[in-house]
């Protein structure tokens, strides 16, 4: 059966079920399935995994078989008994100790981002983040709200760090940074604290958290700290000029609406912000991966 509607129907079904897939992967991470299988170093049966992780047998069997369908686990049978082990994807990205682990970012998606996205409709109606609805937090200060607890802060910070293991190299290779011997990656409370001396400042995934006014305030402060010839490297997911892609940049921009005061921007918008703060010789490099790079100089 192949009607003209079929490709549309497939697309519809894929979109409808997208969050079910995400949540299965998050849950398997949260329960520690991938870490357990990596730790034992040999395939385990469903009941053994359930007992070791303190879950129901029925729920665990469903979860494990779904993970097989998603290529997160391999299943083999030994004497009619099903045994499970990690696929290469799980070993690399889903275990806490994996060389390219995304474990903490997935946990953050599951426990914070996912909860905020429950209020996407309200976020679009009101044009602002949904921390109050999602977590009952009435704080006006974004970062007091983002980091509801020390644990959440650590999960978020670890998660942001983990992303560099999959996109860091491309970002750092996008420009010749050899003219800048001392590089300072700006983080923490850069609105209040003084900016240390350096030849190049990096602002990675910072500007997308803020509206234009706060961005300009921060960029001007960095420009003041810069000596002539010094640079600023902005690392962000850059939207196409007409904002109709790439899809991941659009989704992240919606996430900024739901979780922060910011949005993702186009190359022209970043040029505009950097120029307004005084920077010149602005170059934008697309990596083709998650994060792109923009270099400006004083
Ligand atoms: C931020 C980055 C993130 C603020 C909130 C965030 C991420 C998730 N929540 O600066 C990482 C990027 N992923 C998405 C979906 O935006």
Characterise this structure.
There is one protein chain. With 298 residues, the chain is α/β, with parallel strands linked by helices. It folds into two domains: 6-94, Winged helix-like DNA-binding domain superfamily/Winged helix DNA-binding domain (Arc Repressor Mutant, subunit A, Orthogonal Bundle), CATH 1.10.10.10; 103-297, 3-Layer(aba) Sandwich (Rossmann fold). It is built from 13 helices and eight strands. The protein has helices at 6-31, 33-40, 46-53, 57-69, 88-94, 103-117, 120-126, 131-135, 142-146, 150-173, 212-225, 247-259, 267-276; strands at residues 44-45, 73-78, 81-86, 183-185, 200-204, 231-236, 280-285, 292-297. Strand 2 and strand 3 form a beta hairpin. The longest helix is centred in the first third of the chain and has 26 residues, at 6-31. The model has no long low-confidence stretch (mean pLDDT 94). The structure holds N-acetyl serotonin. The site of N-acetyl serotonin has 8 residues, from helix 12.
Would you spell out the secondary-structure blueprint of this structure?
Blueprint: H1 6-31, H2 33-40, E1 44-45, H3 46-53, H4 57-69, E2 73-78, E3 81-86, H5 88-94, H6 103-117, H7 120-126, H8 131-135, H9 142-146, H10 150-173, E4 183-185, E5 200-204, H11 212-225, E6 231-236, H12 247-259, H13 267-276, E7 280-285, E8 292-297
The site of N-acetyl serotonin has 8 residues, from helix 12.
């Amino acid at each position: 059966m192949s009607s003209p509607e079929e490709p549309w129907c497939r697309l519809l079904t894929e979109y409808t079920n997208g969050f079910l897939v995400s949540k299965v992967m998050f849950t398997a991470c949260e329960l520690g399935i991938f870490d357990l299988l990596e730790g034992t170093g040999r395939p385990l049966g469903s009941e053994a995994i359930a007992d070791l992780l303190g879950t129901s047998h029925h729920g665990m069997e469903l979860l494990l078989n779904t993970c097989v369908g998603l290529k997160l686990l391999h299943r083999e049978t030994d004497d009619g008994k099903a045994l499970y082990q990690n696929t290469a994807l799980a070993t690399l990205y889903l275990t806490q100790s994996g060389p390219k682990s995304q474990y903490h970012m997935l946990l953050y998606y599951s426990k914070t981002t996912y909860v905020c996205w429950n209020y996407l409709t309200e976020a679009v109606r009101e044009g602002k983040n949904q921390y109050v609805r999602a977590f009952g937090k009435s704080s006006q200060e974004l970062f007091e709200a983002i980091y509801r607890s020390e644990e959440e802060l650590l999960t978020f910070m670890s998660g942001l760090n983990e992303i560099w293991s999959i996109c860091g190299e491309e970002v750092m290779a996008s420009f010749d940074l050899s003219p800048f011997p001392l590089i300072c990656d700006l983080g923490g409370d850069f609105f209040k604290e003084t900016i240390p001396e350096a030849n190049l400042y990096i602002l990675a995934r910072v500007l997308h958290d803020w509206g234009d006014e706060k961005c300009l305030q921060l960029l001007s402060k960095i420009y003041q700290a810069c000596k002539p010839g010094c640079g600023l490297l902005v690392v962000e997911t850059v939207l196409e000029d007409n904002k109709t892609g790439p899809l991941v940049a659009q989704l992240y921009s919606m996430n900024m609406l739901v979780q922060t005061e910011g949005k993702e921007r186009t190359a022209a918008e970043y040029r505009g912000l950097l120029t307004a703060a005084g920077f010149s010789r602005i170059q934008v490099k697309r990596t083709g991966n998650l994060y792109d790079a923009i270099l400006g100089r004083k």
